[in-house]
Amino acid sequence: MSLRPITLSDRKDGNDPESTVITKTRPKTQRPPLYKVLLLNDDYTPMEFVVHILERFFGLSHAQAFEIMLTVHKKGLAVVGVFSFEVAETKVAQVMDFARRHQHPLQCTMEKE
Ligand code: TYC
User: Fold this and answer.
1) 32 φ, ψ to 5°?
2) Is 77 exposed, middle or buried (0-12, 13-18, 19+ CB in 10 A)?
3) Tens digits of per-residue pLDDT, 24-80?
4) Separation of 44 CA from ligand 1 center, angstroms?
5) Which end of the chain is more exposed for a tag (fewer CB within 10 A), N or C?
6) What is the pLDDT of residue 25?
7) H/E stretch holding 92
8) Is the CB of 37 under 6 A from ligand 1?
9) Does residue 42 have its Cβ closer than 6 Å to ligand 1?
């Protein structure tokens, strides 16, 4: 009696019954949309208050914050950061709440990139 293992050459059709063709499907992954947070100019909010907001809520250095504040002051608005929807929404709410509590008319909005 033969105890030789069955091999590929034993099959008349030549197909290895243990082999599998693996087809990798790569479904298109969608990146979540990003949102720009914009700061708007007004005539009343003190410059130093705006600089403070940019440092406090956007983690900017004093120099970066001052530069962006000046851009808003001169051009009317500037993008202060780009975030996921939830983070942008939170930043806008923090800025608006802080400005309101200090009775400044500062406006902050978000827009899909
Ligand atoms: N224009 C303001 C002033 O002259 C300063 C200012 C800067 C206000 C940026 C708002 O988002 C702003 N005091």
Assistant:
1) -65, 145
2) middle
3) 777 888 999 999 999 999 999 999 999 999 999 999 999 999 999 999 999 999 999
4) 7
5) N
6) 78
7) helix 85-101
8) no
9) yes
Distance CA 112, CA 110 (A): 7
103 conformational bin, left if phi > 0, alpha if psi -120 to 50, beta if neither: left
One-letter-per-residue 3-state SS of 22-61? CCCCCCCCCCCCCEEEEEECCCCCCHHHHHHHHHHHHCCC
If you measure from the C-alpha of residue 109 to the centroid of ligand 1, how many angstroms do you get, rounded to a whole number? 15
Give the distance (Å) from ligand 1 centre to CA of residue 11: 83
Long-range CB contacts (< 8 A, 24+ apart) of 48-52? 49/99, 49/102, 49/104, 49/106, 50/106
**Side-chain-side CA neighbours of residue 59 (13 Å):** 3
